[in-house]
Amino acid sequence: MAEEVSFLRNVPIFTDIDEQELKKVAKLGVRKKYKKGSIVVLEEEMGAALFVIVSGKVKVVRMDETGREVILSIFGPGEFFGEMSLLDGMTRSASVVATMKTELFMIHRRDFLDLIAAYPQVAISLLGELAMRLRKADTQIKSLSLKDAAGRVANVLLMLADDLGMFRKGKVEVEDLPLQQDMANMAGTSRETVSRMLHKFIKEGHVQVKGNKLTINDYEAFRKQYV
Ligand code: CMP
After folding, report:
1. Are residues 217 and 166 both part of a single domain?
2. 131 and 201 part of one domain
3. What atom in ligand 1 is closest to the CA of residue 50?
């Protein structure tokens, strides 16, 4: 119980809930474990719950008309998903798949809606996060429609840096870089193009790749040149 409360305390949208209420939330929710590749949420199904990531990682995906997967976002510990269908009463807007062994904290729809009604601060944090996600989606739309291959791939690397990176003095390190095919699905391009662009960025001195660790040497300079 104490472990659950301290986990929830560190989830950005719940930081302003008082201790007593956080204990109630801890009791309301249940933890669930998922294997790599498991589908947590299926596009078009009715939404019954919100999920917060305890450990692991998930990807938010939609299929395009040719059946190819398009990755909209990747979420890690402390982040939430599944709120959209709870808020608008429509079906799930996308599928969410565990990309590694993942543990989630699940809150039922009614409990989540009661929580935001009782805590305006939770609703405000939630809106702030949704605004940020909309900004990212805007950037992704712009990059998919306007940019050449280099710009699109650079944009994906910058998005991964924003979501998963460790920033230090302008330099960013991203552990567990997704597979090149997954990055291609985020960029709306082919795996071969991602590979070609990564080599180009390495040659230009913008990035380093060791195993599945990516380093962007100067985030701002890279962004200025390509996005
Ligand atoms: P919901 O529609 O209930 O189920 C799928 C979830 O994926 C959705 O809620 C959001 O949490 C998440 N999601 C959908 N589209 C995006 C997006 N463009 N960026 C980030 N997350 C998204």
Report:
1. yes
2. no
3. 3
* CATH at residue 115: 2.60.120.10
Percent of the chain with pLDDT over 70: 99
What pLDDT, on the 0 to 100 scale, is given for residue 67?
Answer: 79
Structure token digits, residue 125: 């944090």
**pLDDT (tens digit per residue) in 28-45:** 899 999 999 999 999 999
Distance 210 CA to ligand 1 centre (A): 31
Contact 215, 173 (CB under 8 A): yes
Q: List Cβ neighbours of 70 (8 Å cut-off, separation of 6 or more).
A: 61, 62, 63, 64, 185, 186, 188
Ligand 1 in contact with 47 (CB < 6 A)? yes
Strand order of the β-sheet with 69-75 is 39-41, 95-98, 58-63, 69-75
Which residue out of 57, 93, 156, 162 has the highest number of ligand 1 atoms within 8 Å of its CB and is therefore the one to mutate? 93
Residue 14 is part of which domain span?
A: 2-140
Q: Global pTM?
A: 0.85
Do 173 and 107 share a structural domain? no
